[in-house]
Write a structure and sequence with these properties.
alpha/beta; Nucleotidyltransferase, domain 5; 2 domains; six-stranded mixed beta sheet; five-stranded mixed beta sheet; 11 helices; 11 strands; 40% helix; binds 5'-O-[(R)-(carboxyoxy)(hydroxy)phosphoryl]adenosine; binds zinc ion
Length: 375
């Protein structure tokens, strides 16, 4: 049972072959970080154009590495959404063409369900092949999403909470821009924080006893803290007023750090990282206890964060599953793993499959989703 999967929902062009929904035969990712770096964030049109040129070489490499000829493939899977429309369209169209030419079923995958099933992936030489036990609490933390789920069993998802504004990865990316640390922000803040101490106690949005998250106030607190340093330092340096910081990017938070040479960037990065991680850990641990989970999974790009991994490991008395680093950030192996479930549910797509930039859990066919409505 081999699935070839394609993922182009954001800024990674990816293809993979996965056997039985778990064993990764190949996993090829062409990152666009260098392309978007100078803009301080993803530029959607550039992303979709790059997918067009990158996808065929990536697909070829995925098939060659897996050494799986077309006749040994059982299905073609693709990310249907959520994501950037122009980026999704490239993958959807390519998957349709391959499925049509090779006469294979076409499996549509929700990107977030892909992140969940990254926890089922195994490299071919893996020795521990145990699966996460249900019910499981799953924290999805990426550049576009922050969701806390209770997964009762395959295909039954309870959305305990989600972000009300910025996603955790977005908070890292915006924080890094404010500190002048570059893109992507998560790894940059983590690196900077290693050389600093959390000197500032930034606000945490606990939002009562809800499992929801909010990070926009934190970003504003960082911005204010940086402004204080700028106010203290800028006029005294040359006696002249500092040049106005002209944003070099379409992102207004980008203020070049050279206007505040004494700003303790490493300490601010450590304080900021501490505040994001604190809330993620507290809510996940509480959910695991209150919901009587048998394990906890963390997935998505922010799951690569070392402090988050360390803290969760220390605070949980349950098995903690975090995918290997290459499966935390966007990749196609996780799409193949989720496609295996889509196939089991009998939810193959027709030729009218379209990209779905907004794709809520509740729209997943063949799945039971329990949503909690809040005031
Ligand atoms: O899952 P992903 O690759 O793409 C989306 O689906 O969004 O996640 C990318 C996000 C970015 O916001 C990036 O800053 C964040 O994951 N990230 C990290 C780390 N590595 C990547 N955040 C915190 N610490 C990291 N080490
Ligand atoms: Zn993602």
């Amino acid at each position: 049972m081999n699935i070839l999967a394609i993922e182009t929902s954001c800024d990674e062009t990816a293809a993979a072959v996965v056997q039985h929904g778990r064993i990764v035969r190949s996993n090829i990712v062409a990152s666009q970080i260098a392309l978007h770096e100078k803009y301080g964030g993803i530029v959607p049109e550039l992303a979709s154009r790059r997918h067009i040129t990158a996808l065929v070489p990536v697909l070829r490499e995925a098939l060659e590495t897996a050494q799986t000829p077309p006749e040994d493939l059982d299905a073609i899977a693709v990310t249907e959404g959520p994501g950037l429309a122009g980026s999704l369209l490239v993958g959807v169209n390519a998957a349709k063409a391959i499925a049509l030419a090779w006469r294979k079923p076409l499996l549509p995958v929700n990107h977030l369900e892909g992140h969940v099933y990254a926890n089922w992936l195994l490299s071919p030489d893996a020795t521990d092949t145990s699966e996460p036990a249900f019910p499981a609490v799953c924290l999805i933390v990426s550049g576009g999403h922050t969701e806390l789920l209770l997964i009762h069993k395959h295909g039954v998802y309870e959305v305990l909470g989600r972000t009300l504004d910025d996603a955790a990865g977005e908070a890292f990316d915006k924080g890094a821009r404010i500190l002048g640390l570059g893109y992507p922000g998560g790894p940059a803040i983590q690196r900077a924080a290693e050389g600093g101490r959390p000197i500032e106690h930034f606000p945490r949005a606990w939002l009562g006893d809800s499992y929801d998250f909010s990070f926009s106030g934190l970003k504003t607190a960082l911005l204010r803290a940086c402004e204080q340093y700028r106010k203290q330092e800028a006029p005294s340096r040359s006696g002249r007023k500092p040049k106005k910081a002209t944003p070099a990017t379409p992102f207004p938070e980008h203020i070049p750090p050279q206007y505040s040479p004494n700003m303790p960037v490493a300490d601010l990065a450590a304080s900021y990282q501490e505040a994001v991680v604190d809330v993620l850990v507290e809510k996940t641990v509480r959910a695991a206890l209150e919901q009587h989970a048998r394990c906890v999974m963390v997935t998505g790009g922010v799951a690569a964060n070392a402090l988050l991994r360390r803290r969760l490991g220390a605070k949980l008395n349950l098995p903690l599953h975090i995918p290997e680093m290459q499966y935390c950030t966007d990749n196609a192996a996780m799409i193949a793993a989720a496609a295996y479930q889509v196939m089991r549910r009998g939810a193959a797509a027709g030729w009218d499959l379209d990209a779905r930039p907004q794709f809520p859990w509740s729209a997943l066919p063949g799945v039971r989703v329990i949503e909690h409505t809040r005031a």
